[in-house]
User: What shape does this take?
Amino acid sequence: MRAARAAWRFLRGEPFAFVGAAIYALIVVTAIFADKLAPHDPREILRVGRRVARYLPISPEHWLGTTSSGRDVLSQLIWGTRSALQVGLTAAIVVVAIGTLMGLLAGYLGGWVDKLITRLADIVLSMPFLPFMLVLAALTQPGTTVVVACVALLLWPNTARVIRSQVLSLRERAWVEAARVTGCSNTRIMFVHILPQVLPLAALYGSVAIGWAILAEASASFLGFGDPNTVSWGVMLQEAYANQALGRGAWNWFTPPGLAIVSMVLAGFMISRGSEKLLFPKLADK
Amino acid sequence: MKRHVVAAMAVAGLVTSLPVSAQPAGDPVRTLVLLAQPQAALPQEYQAAELIAAAWRQLGLQVQIRPLPSQQFNQIVWYERQRWDTTTWQMVGRPERSDPDELTYNLFLSANIANGYNFVGYNNPEYDRLASAQREELDVAKRKQLMIQAQELVNRDQPYGFMVHPKNVVAFNKNVWDEKSIVDQAGIGARNTWTWLSIAPLGAQRDIILNSVSTPTNLNPFNISGAQGSWAAEITWDRLMRIGTDGLPQPWSAEAVTRPDPLTVDVKLRAGMKWSDGRPITIEDAVFSLVAPGIGDKSPMYKPFVANIANVQATGTDTLRITLKKPDAAFLVSSLAKLNLAPKHVWEPIFQSLQGKPETAESVMETTPVSSGPFRMVKAKLNEEIVLEANRDHWAAPKAARWIMRIQPNTEAALGALRSGEINFLADYNGDPQILRDIAKADPKIKIAEALDMGFKFIAYNHRRQPFNSTPFRQALSASIDRELLAEDAWGGAAVPSNSWVSPALTFWHDQGIEKRVPGGNVEAAKKILKDAGFVLVNGRLHYPAGVKETTAPFQ
Amino acid sequence: MSRSGFLRLVAERLGFLVLTVWITTTVTFLLFRLMPGDPTLAYLSPTFNEETRTALLRSFGLDKPLWEQYLIYMGNLLQGDLGTSFLQRVPVSQLLADALPNTIILTLVALSIAYAFGIVAGAFLAFQRGRGIEGFAIPAALATRSAPEFWLGMLLLAGLAFQLGWFPTGGAVPPGSNLGGVVDRLTSPEFWRHLFLPALTLVLYLQGLPLLLMRATMLEVMNDEFIVMARMKGLSRWSIVMRHAARNALLPVVTAFALGLGASVGGNVVVETVFAWPGVGRVLVQAVQGADYPVAQGAFILISVVLATMNTVADLLYAALDPRVSVGARR
Assistant: This one.
């Protein structure tokens, strides 16, 4: 409760973070009530008589028209929030979990553990992200699992580095020393004492990772390695592109999913930018 | 306790069987998985698969569409033949398929079930007999009768669910090219060798600039390049014969080809032809070109085309005689119009240097290819463009100055390039034909040429897995497919309904009206076929006939 | 840092680079050998039989055991031999050599413009700290970074190429032009016309990072004591910003440029695909789609090596430029 009030106070003072959080809230609500909000089943092939209802323009019946295969664009857009949240959140949680753990181990234990993790991070960072995802998707089954796995496998070093340097400075603090003297185990110090201190920072990286995951899913789908059975914004864009929505000038089809992606990724950025004062008080002094 | 359960089960059994108490049912048919390539790769096929799945659901089946990336898709369908239920597939048109023999012999012959082209596993001795008989029959009228019988047999057995024959939709800039100089080749359309030779410029622009949506492969006389690469190969290298616009083979680099008996082919070479390095084309070159693919395994893709040749012998300075192992009605089409003429003085040393190495002649790259065709290769940047220039010394020299193929994988961009004049021949278009028609309507310089293709699109049933081994079941599936709807809505009108592997574009061989004679012909009739064969609907779900167990594991 | 200390750092970094490249190439090898599907599938045709298939597999070297393939692969790599394309039957190194200059030109041009713009705009915004323009400029910079690159490309293509017809719709050179060499291309106006849209897409996408980075470091530097001192000495605000703050703030931006160069070579795949730009990224995408392992493998290795090298360069640049950095205590 107190945390909620603190968050609210923070948001009121931070217009960027406020807008970001508002976008997230809107997306979450849409995702929860997607089945109630969407006027049609997003996978249903709509018909006009015997024929398929292709490329219907914007109308009261179809607010954003229909696709080349006779599906309702608005319904797909609404259902897309579910897949976006699912991909974004899983990827963010996995990245943050791995990154924080690695950063914590490297920063606190130091020595060869630090060296090993830092080297591993360097090697991972020299794997090109999109190409790696393409190859992995072609190797296994295209779909969201690959996207999440790639984001997790390749993006943890960013979080780990930041957490590591944070831990390095925390380690030298008096209360950590005190805990050590009173006989606390390393594990306990790391996970009980230090972890809570670095979690806000980690969460911030998580909000950015949500964005990366959604962009990654969109790119993979665009190149034909998405999960064609899900309704996602990336798949919508790819369908529009493959079915020549550009040539038909079907702006009603290919603009909305792109805007949806932009707003969701932007929300993550805005929250983390908005929180820069919280994180770097040095800047806020000015 | 136990007794209650048994009683409950008995009641449940009674209830479920009540609506159909007249007909006892077997197990419910498992969920059938229809494989397809992703929408991104083949949007039209994907939509067709969705429409067909919807129709099959009306028969009481549970159907799931499973899109797979092309590589996995091909791997499963081709090399894991026990595994899948049913899939979308296609056969594309090629000049050498103007003779129906290749597909007739390969697609349904029982000898090809294990690892050949009969990947569905159709097995009917009567068909085997017809397919072999037509191959050995040199009398055209008799051979036609055999072809008609074969098509009727396949119509009865429905080894495939035929969907449509696509139309080839191309477009060109009629401010640049004289409309009348563009010719149609049966089953191929306006984009063909004859057009490249006869197309006449109206003004200063004399370069044919066409597009290709995929990257061509290495160009040399012993590599079969992909579809688009073949367009360039066909005009770069000469062949003894070519398929004419009527779909029949005609002498090209040969002056005359005669068949004194079923096993003998006599060829007389055209006089005065030269290689691009200035040397004359000799009868030794012609013999070499027919023999080389068969030596060792250095030309694996061309080897099958010479497999039936027992012997080739020069019989004079400009004549040679080919002796065949078995009679082959389609030999002129499948071999003489297919094999490229290659210079012996260039390629014999190359073949020798390849002995004992893993590489084949297919990957040999020539810096300046020595060829004799109506065009010559100037530049081959396979990811950007291929540039050929007219060979003015050729006896059939083209009217255009250069032939430039731009590699443009994006359909939208290709359309834009046609409108802006970057390309003047849209040769490779697999997009929505309606968009192209709209563009042509709005832009007077663009002219569309649509022609029926000799290829076909179909749903393959895996006969190795029940219930696809049941002929009535396949008939019912085929009958429920609304081919007009597919042609109109999935292919945007650029297709016609199909019920045979011999396209109506091959007028002579096609079994007229067969697309209207699918047994049953609609969803209601399909339901009746299933009922008559003992299949039972239980609460809307299709069950096997009484006593039949579902023993096949669902596709994973 | 002492001179010998720096040399030691260089040696250490280079050694690590070699290790990284070895690990990357080995992982790549294993990945591709585990790929499902058989390369001969690409050739299916009714005339295709078992004999043809075996001959093809042998010519690809796929009939040997895995460890033997690995030794051959590594040996060939050391000699710069990346094998032969399954599909196109030409040496992979040649396909890549054709494509690499296009990718590098596109990347360098876009990155330079993006960074030039980002640095100036970032410095300007730092200067305008707390004013109304921030409320518009920062979300705008963030928004361009949030948009999928291919979608930006689609919008530009739909508007500027399809509807207005100002730019070509794809490719790098006009049809049949003899712009083979890099110099020919760079001096041809047509080439730049083709380059415009893909480069613009990348610029839009890339400018956000240098802008925000420049702004943040400028703000940080302007708080430093020496700036405060200079201010007290009565120097004008502008000259302080330009002469002192900007110079110091540039350091992380320069490092980010080197990192960005490496990352863009791999990240260009979507932009190159949208605009049919004949670069390494498009070669990779086509090869993966067509299961042309040697090409996909070669393109992937090339991209990884460029990325790893640029990471190393960035590290060294940072060490060379920043006197505060000492060996072992980076970041």
